[in-house]
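Progress note, project year one: complex with nicotinamide-adenine-dinucleotide.
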Amino acid sequence: MRIALIGCGRIGRVHAESIALHPKAELVRVCDPMETAAREVAARFGGVPGSDVDAVLADPDIDAVVIASPTPTHVDLLTRAVAAGKAVMCEKPIDLDLARVDECRARIGDGASRVLVGFNRRFDPSFRAVRERVAAGEIGRLEQLVVISRDPAPSPAEYLATSGGLFRDMTIHDFDMARFFLGEVVEVSAMGSNLVADYITELGDIDGAVVTLRGADGALCHITNSRRCTFGYDQRLEAFGSLGMLSVDNLRPDGVRSYGAHGTEAASPYLDFFLDRYTPAYRAELDHFIEAIGNGTAPRPGFDDGRAALVLADAAGESLRTGRVVTVGGTR
Ligand SMILES: NC(=O)c1ccc[n+]([C@@H]2O[C@H](COP(=O)([O-])OP(=O)(O)OC[C@H]3O[C@@H](n4cnc5c(N)ncnc54)[C@H](O)[C@@H]3O)[C@@H](O)[C@H]2O)c1
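Model obtained:
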């Protein structure tokens, strides 16, 4: 698959490396309005650098584009890329505004079946194994899912000001995990807190949240988020069922534990942040995209999964504002 990368920032570089390492992929073009960023990525991972998106989309040699530019650019780039006949791997979220997402969906029509939305956690080997073992019946009927997701430290104010708020920026990954396990979600209840950073309060956002979801078949999901966690990137999950439980703990770079006069069992810190913790997931995500498009099947999570996670984020926002449980439908 001949791929162009649009957006050469933090996550763009991760995808560039995955493409460069994939035996069935070739990084043909890299595009960013900051030409130095495009040139740096091209020098490390290949491809012709440039800043002209039109030239990328008009290039008949390109089969697929990876959109890793800021969220407000996604809808326009995705719509144009699908119209140009490209398969698309688009970073999350599709957009912050559901109306714009729906407009985009109407424009791309059947082209949506060649779009993957970057909910990389579905491809984390441990989370995926739990999902497969739950589906195989190992813990009986799934009754409760617990998702813990805490960032090591809050992002700077400039990022948070345009992020769309905690639910649409951060919890959106966890809403997708909830749907990955529970399927359709029918109720959302959320509480938020401002205990971490004054500048987040001043931006009108929250910096911690607990969200409860009910699946259509009755199972519950409990999501805990914080923008700060002193012991690192806290990414855990528990699936509890009628016959037992499967859980995933945080990952460390190695399994070495230390014993000495200073104390015992001090282990290395957890993998630092998403770039380290989810490297295998980003690679597997790209691999799934290449395989699905190559086989003519729709990649998952697809456009409609991206929309469904945004519906849940908006419902959580409504619950936070009103103090009510919000009923949702059609998130499958
Ligand atoms: N899946 C994940 O784990 C994950 C992690 C981080 C970010 N993201 C998402 O990826 C996107 C990018 O985030 P980031 O942290 O890499 O941002 P970033 O600011 O580090 O990088 C964005 C890059 O896009 C470039 N850019 C701006 N406008 C552009 C345009 N019109 N066309 C092409 N390039 C353009 C910028 O110059 C910059 O180099 C966001 O939507 C974010 O939500 C996803």
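The chain has two domains: 2-117, 121-327.
Residues 83 and 108 are 7 Å apart (CA to CA).
No further modelling is planned for this target in the current period.
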